[in-house]
Amino acid sequence: MLTQALLVDDSRSVLNFLKRHIEAEGLVEATTFLDPVEALTCARERAFDLVLVDYEMPHMDGISFIRTFRRLAGCADIPIAMITSRQTDDVKMEALQAGATDFLPKQPQSVEMTVRLRNLIQLGAAVRKLNDRAAHLASEVAAATRKLGEREEEIILRLALAVEYRDNDTGEHTLRVARYSRIIAEQLGLPARLCRDIYLAAPLHDVGKVAIPDKILLKPGKLTDQEMAVIRTHATIGERILADSSCELIQLGAQIAAGHHERWDGAGYPSGLKADEIPMAARVVAVADVFDALTTRRPYKEPMPIEMARNYLVENKGRQFDPACVEAFLSRWDEVLDIAAGGQATPFPKAEAPLAPIIKCPVKGRSPEFAATT
Ligand SMILES: [Fe+2]
């Protein structure tokens, strides 16, 4: 590809000479302008590798041209030579401060001009190669980062699904809790990045259940106090599994795992935190998790009617739940109903494949509120 040069001079004869001179070796294609303002308009539209500009011109002098050109996107490093017969030190200094790379004398066919032009052409080509390489590397890094992020999200989801399969027949609880949580986070006005992260980390809330023995986790009947105490260790175990990660999403998952059974009034577990002491992400997921647990069938209970679950949230606003989180959830009720009914295609990577049922044995025995307290 030929080096693209932009030539600006109010003298047609100088422009013609420069164009012939610079294109002589077949390495450069020059675009000429008598008017510096028109040249700048052109430079906003297309890329140049080298600029030669006159000092004295009507409408805009060479110094102002260089200053404006340097501010255009992608033009910070392009070599610019100012061509003038008035090369006083003051003019040179002003041109340098404006961003000029070099100065060329207005002396046709001088050896000095030929040599310096050749150097400028080589510099322009080198800068373009460097910029192309930098752009290529930047896009490679962006693609690799995106791929890493997608893998991170997928691993989180699959870890959460692996845990959920132990006591749920479809794995869809994990996805619904994520969606409900995103609604709450968005409606609370949390930053977009945090909404996304809460959405992605919410599935980790029950990861500690991996350490709960089957005979307790899958027990169809009422749990003893001792068994309930074992179940409740899943919050602390989940935090321990996820703690100290260098991954921000997993750090957030640790907060959610540790705090999703804390209560607004301080009567929750494992730490008895209350109100703002509970991390925001955990307060969000607490509402989403309980609502979904109440409204879905489990091996030990029938689903609670949606309106009854809504009333449960309202009654426990300011007691079990952060009132703002409940309000946020209820304010987008139509979307909640859509998710509860199985709407919204899953956005998680590769999770579109149907999840094979594992447990199909609805057994009554535990109260619906069990799900809201464990
Ligand atoms: Fe839990």
Q: What order do the SSEs take from the amino end to the carboxyl end, as H and E?
A: EHEHEHEHEHHHHHHHHHHH
Which superfamily, in CATH terms, is the homologous superfamily of the largest domain? Hypothetical protein af1432
Number of domains: 2
Structure ligands? fe (ii) ion
How many helices? The count is 15
Question: What's the total number of strands?
Answer: 5
Rg over C-alpha atoms, rounded to the nearest angstrom = 34 Å
The percent range for helix content is: 40-55%
Structural class: alpha/beta
Outline type: rod-shaped
The parts where pLDDT drops under 50 for at least 5 residues are 345-371
The major beta sheet can be summarized as: 5 strands, parallel
| CATH architectural designation of the largest domain | Orthogonal Bundle
Question: What is the strand arrangement across the widest sheet?
Answer: 2-1-3-4-5
In round numbers, the mean pLDDT is: 86
Q: Kindly provide the name of the CATH class of the largest domain.
A: Mainly Alpha
Ends distance: 67 Å
Describe what you observe in this structure.
The protein has 15 helices and 5 strands. Strand 3 (50-54), helix 3 and strand 4 (80-83) form a beta-alpha-beta unit. It is 54% helix and 6% strand. By secondary structure, the chain is α/β, with parallel strands linked by helices. The chain folds into 2 domains: 3-138, 3-Layer(aba) Sandwich (Rossmann fold); 169-373, Orthogonal Bundle (Hypothetical protein af1432). Strands 2-1-3-4-5 form a 5-stranded parallel beta sheet, with helices on both faces. The structure holds fe (ii) ion. Residues 205-206, 234, 260-261 line the site of fe (ii) ion (FE2).
